[in-house]
Write a structure and sequence with these properties.
By secondary structure, the chain is of the alpha/beta class. It has 26 helices and nine strands. Strand 4 and strand 5 form a beta hairpin. The longest helix has 22 residues.
Length: 608
């Protein structure tokens, strides 16, 4: 294996060069462009880098990536100039370490590359003098000086000059033989300023997954076998497994239940699907950045390269095992549905994976039930007290769970892929009234839809009244179409719609029952807007039409408008009666019973 090992990458097709470069093989001048601030690493950052180099102990080890663009080409690589788009802090610190070893410990020739600045020439001069008299005259000088003093302190801890020389000799050897950076060379046509901006707002073109793959493939051949043929076969096997995992996670139903987003979503967290697995395997103890709410850039790579360094085979086996675990959960609808619900409700998939370690199947199932119970925070008593007006969030979570569990009881997987494609809202099964409609075109549409429904409830007893009312509706629609609100007032509409609702609705609904869970169903926001203020029969017709045409309707919503819950002897299909509400509420209690608390919640702090 050569010092600089090219790693296959998805960037190859776009002309980007992604490879591993040993620090001692870096050549030329790297200049920091004017759009970047100067050197800002703290003493802790410097000491952490030195500790990482020392702990690598001569094994192949990759530091975080450096992003460059060739500025001046030259046959003599020492005369090349590189625009340093990302990695200024790291390369500057490595330069300071090598120069300190040369100057103070008199070991080696110093850094093989140079650091410069596009506009801050004095900073370039100070980098090579580190004059203590000038350290407080410039913010760049201040940080460069204190970084050098941190390096001094780190070597001092090892004892006398002989001990320091031995340590320095080892550090220098590691930097020239085994410690490298992931080198990302942007294509010539790339806008360096734009790339820098993208890197620093989180839209990272160089992903953690690519860096992990590069680090892994530089280690696997070394560990796999001394035989070159076997090493090549092992690397090809990892490539094939990597691609297989990526393909599996591109299946919409698998991706939806682990990520909670659609398969075609442009989510910066997961530029590749395997990124979710790698994030899950990375140590999650690091606090999120208080300003961005995200992990530090390249955090996952930083964590996983330590595992790769210790044992690349064991690390890759963890990835394979997590992939197998996901497929195993996918194959068990009841487990799949519970995990998918929790992810859809905002629970981290990584946290679920962490808790699943070492659990037996029965214990894991009980754990998921407890998680869901904690998510909905509702008791049997609370269920009847919740109201659309005061607790729409909890009600929506409960109805989603009702749909998921209904599918689960049939031994099937809930379609999280279809669910997350839409925004969901609560739909009143029985309309409240039409008072909120204020525009003439809304009145005309409402009357037209409900005129058709009037014919559904026509009988020998009420035929005369229905015909008279239908004629009034026709006249009203004509007036509205001819003159709008001038020809037909809001009061006239409310009077007419009120009389229609008496035929098409039921009169036994009080304000509480209208807004309770017994009168609510899940419907997409788009569909909901098309049904606003319609009575049951109008909604029933619309929903059955949508269902017939292949639109996704949640199973419980479809059951409601098919009058599934009222029983086979409930032959009246046009109203949402008290009997229907009671039967629907009883079904909710029965299906959600494993997740309901036994006592009322004192403080409803619902998650959403």
């Amino acid at each position: 294996m050569t010092d600089d090992t090219t790693a296959a990458s998805s960037n190859a097709a776009s002309g980007c060069k992604l490879k591993r470069k040993i620090i001692g093989n870096l050549r030329g001048r790297f200049f920091v462009p004017s759009y970047q601030r100067g050197y800002r690493w703290s003493n802790e950052d410097v000491l952490r880098l030195l500790d990482d180099i020392w702990e690598s102990d001569g094994s192949q080890y990759s530091l975080q990536p450096v992003v460059v663009k060739l500025h001046i080409e030259c046959d003599d690589e020492n005369q090349r100039e590189w625009e340093l788009i990302d990695g200024q802090q790291r390369l500057t610190t490595l330069y300071l370490i090598l120069e300190y070893i040369k100057r103070e410990i008199q070991c080696g020739k110093g850094s093989p590359y140079r650091i410069g600045y596009d506009t801050r020439n004095k900073s370039e001069e100070y980098l090579n003098s580190l004059d203590p008299e000038l350290k407080d005259t410039n913010i760049d000088f201040y940080h460069l000086y204190h970084a050098d003093r941190a390096i001094h302190g780190w070597f001092q801890q090892w004892g006398d000059e002989y001990a320091q020389f031995d340590i320095a000799s080892d550090i220098r050897s590691y930097l020239f033989k085994s410690v490298g950076i992931i080198w990302y060379e942007a294509p010539p046509e790339t806008s360096a300023t734009e790339l820098f901006t993208r890197l620093n707002v989180g839209r990272i073109p160089l992903t953690d997954a690519e860096l992990v793959k590069a680090a892994l493939l530089t280690k696997i051949p070394e560990k796999a076998s001394k035989d070159e043929v076997e090493s090549t076969v092992r690397a090809q096997e990892i490539y094939a497994q990597w691609d297989g995992i990526e393909r599996d996670l591109h299946q919409p139903d698998i991706w939806a239940f682990v990520a909670g987003i659609t398969a075609d979503a442009n989510d910066e967290r997961y530029p590749t699907r395997i990124s979710l697995l790698l994030d899950t395997l990375a140590d999650s103890s690091e606090e999120l950045d208080k300003f961005t709410g995200k992990r530090p850039r390249y955090y996952t790579f930083d964590q996983l390269r330590k595992q790769i360094k210790e044992n690349p085979t064991v690390f890759w086996e963890k990835v394979i095992a997590l992939h197998a675990q996901i497929l195993g959960w996918f194959a068990q609808p009841r487990i799949y549905n519970k995990i998918g619900y929790l992810v859809a409700a905002g629970k981290s998939f990584g946290e679920i994976v962490d808790e699943a370690k070492g659990m037996k199947k029965s214990a894991f199932d009980a754990y998921l039930i407890d998680l869901i119970r904690g998510k909905i925070k509702t008791s049997e008593h609370d269920l009847g007290e919740l109201s659309y007006e005061s607790k729409p969030g909890p009600l929506q979570l409960l109805l989603l769970l009702m749909n998921v569990e209904t599918v689960s009881k049939a031994g099937q997987r809930f379609s999280f892929a279809k669910h997350i494609e839409k925004r969901w809202s609560l739909e009143h099964i029985h309309a409240q009234n039409a008072e909120s409609l204020n525009k003439a075109e809304q009145w005309a549409s409402w009357l037209d839809n409900h005129r058709e429904a009037l014919q559904s409830v026509k009988s020998d007893i009420n035929a005369g009244e229905i015909d008279t009312l239908s004629a009034e509706v026709d006249t009203a629609i004509t007036k509205i179409n001819d003159g709008g609100a001038i020809s037909f007032s809001k009061q006239s509409f409310q009077d007419l719609s009120g009389r229609m609702i008496k035929f098409l609705g039921n009169d036994d609904s009080d304000d509480h029952s209208i807004h309770s869970i017994s009168n609510l169903a899940l419907l997409s926001s788009e569909q909901n807007s098309g049904l606003s203020n319609s009575v049951f029969e109008v909604k029933r017709r619309k929903i059955l039409d949508w269902d017939y045409s292949g639109e996704y309707i949640p199973v419980c919503t479809r059951n409601i408008f098919l009058k599934y819950y009222g029983g086979a002897d409930a032959i009246q299909p046009y109203f949402w009666s008290t009997r229907d509400k009671d039967a629907y509420t009883a079904a909710i209690h029965e299906i959600l019973s494993p997740y309901l608390n036994t006592a009322p919640e004192v403080n409803h702090e619902y998650s959403s």
